[in-house]
Amino acid sequence: MTNKELVELVEQLRAENEQLRDDVRAAQSAQTLQISTDEPDAETPAPKAPRRGRGRARTVAAVALVVIGLVLAPVALVGSWAKTQLVDTDTFVATFAPLAADPAVKAFVVTEVMGVIDEQIDFEASTSEVFDAIAALDIPPSAKAALVALKVPAARGLQSLATTVVTGFVDSEAFENIWQQALRLSHQQLVAALTSDPGSAISISGSGELAIQLGPVIEAVKTALVDQGLGFAEAIPTVDAEIVVAQSASFSQLTLLYGLAVSIGQWLPLVALVFLAAGVLVAKRRVVTLFWTSLVFGLVMTVVGIALRVGNVITVSSLAAYVPIDAAGAIYDAVTSLISSTLVAMAVLGFTVALISWVLGPWRPAPALRSVFGDGAARLRAFGDTRGIGTGAFGRFLGRQRLLVQIVIGLGAAAIILFVRPISTGLIVWTAVVAVVLLLLVEVLQRPVATIDLDDPADLDEVSEHPAAPTPEAVAAEPVASTDNMELRG
């Protein structure tokens, strides 16, 4: 073609291009005018209303489920503790057995045992009989006067000797064994009383007094006194003595509470957990709901723990008429030791989940932290690639199944917390730490499709076998057609 023909062709293409541009502008203007001038369709908003209604319904349902779960949580915790203490004799003995080593409880037991011995044996009368028998012999008057003067000191000395023997026995390992036997017998008798067993040796009186049987301890002390050569101990009869450890009008309702604890103590924690989990799953913003649910759960457990400590003051004051304050405090601490440790563990669990959900949530600076970690993981993978170090097929598997692996890790941590007993703060903390470390390792070791090396034949085979949709970054990187492209195509 000649130059003139080329110039004419270029001019023709430019004219066609201008015409195409005018047509595009006209079409856009007409469309904009149509949108602005058309009357609104009465049927158009109809589909949106149900969505808003469904959204509100989901929110209300989520809030209701979470509130019910939070209300049931402390009740379930107390019910589970009551069921364990009331039904499991071994757990009951393990709870109260350490009291045998508490100095305040030992002193209380010595006082109670000596009180029973004093009621059964008149030390002054016993020594008077001995001294009177000696005085009846043909002895000088001065010796008789001396015997009369020695009656009271001898009686007190004999009583002191008995107290020393009792104290020595209470401080021995044999007492701890007897104490455990007494606890086991008392618990069995308590269960018998709560189940209305007519053969029960422990009872809850109409005034609400709860007592522990002291008979085994007195019998063992009697044997120890006889072994020490104190023959008068043979006069101690077999008695059904008991220590009143608590008094409350609410004890009269223990039979009903026992039945409730046995019936629902095992299932109520699971019911509460189901309500909480359902509330989070129903919510539209699950991470946000999980954060607030776990945070409030931790606060509820903290409040219950504070109430338990306040109950210490009230309970010890109510027991002061029967048990010394220091011994009552030791008994209360032993009774509540298991539930106290569980409350602390549950509070730690709630705050730990709240922290994790905050990191995964939309609150600042959580997104920035996640971005920094993601960039760091990407740089670490790139550094490994430059050194010929990579995770290969395992990393590609993690990249494809990352969500599934994260769910498995979460379910494993939840199973440990739910089924491992006894639960403790250390168990929860270490479980959370291990789960977080595993999740971080998955993020570092996984190999996203976007980072696959196209020069690696293995990676190319992986892409061909498992094609993936283009990532947003890839879409954004694609060139966008413009009028200049239209000119070239024209």
UniProtKB/TrEMBL annotation:
<keyword id="KW-0472">Membrane</keyword>
<keyword id="KW-0812">Transmembrane</keyword>
<keyword id="KW-1133">Transmembrane helix</keyword>
<feature type="transmembrane region" description="Helical">
    <location>
        <begin position="256"/>
        <end position="283"/>
    </location>
</feature>
<feature type="transmembrane region" description="Helical">
    <location>
        <begin position="290"/>
        <end position="310"/>
    </location>
</feature>
<protein>
    <recommendedName>
        <fullName>Integral membrane protein</fullName>
    </recommendedName>
</protein>
<feature type="region of interest" description="Disordered">
    <location>
        <begin position="26"/>
        <end position="55"/>
    </location>
</feature>
<feature type="compositionally biased region" description="Low complexity">
    <location>
        <begin position="467"/>
        <end position="481"/>
    </location>
</feature>
<feature type="transmembrane region" description="Helical">
    <location>
        <begin position="403"/>
        <end position="421"/>
    </location>
</feature>
<feature type="region of interest" description="Disordered">
    <location>
        <begin position="461"/>
        <end position="490"/>
    </location>
</feature>
<feature type="transmembrane region" description="Helical">
    <location>
        <begin position="330"/>
        <end position="360"/>
    </location>
</feature>
<feature type="compositionally biased region" description="Polar residues">
    <location>
        <begin position="28"/>
        <end position="37"/>
    </location>
</feature>
<feature type="transmembrane region" description="Helical">
    <location>
        <begin position="60"/>
        <end position="82"/>
    </location>
</feature>
<feature type="transmembrane region" description="Helical">
    <location>
        <begin position="427"/>
        <end position="445"/>
    </location>
</feature>
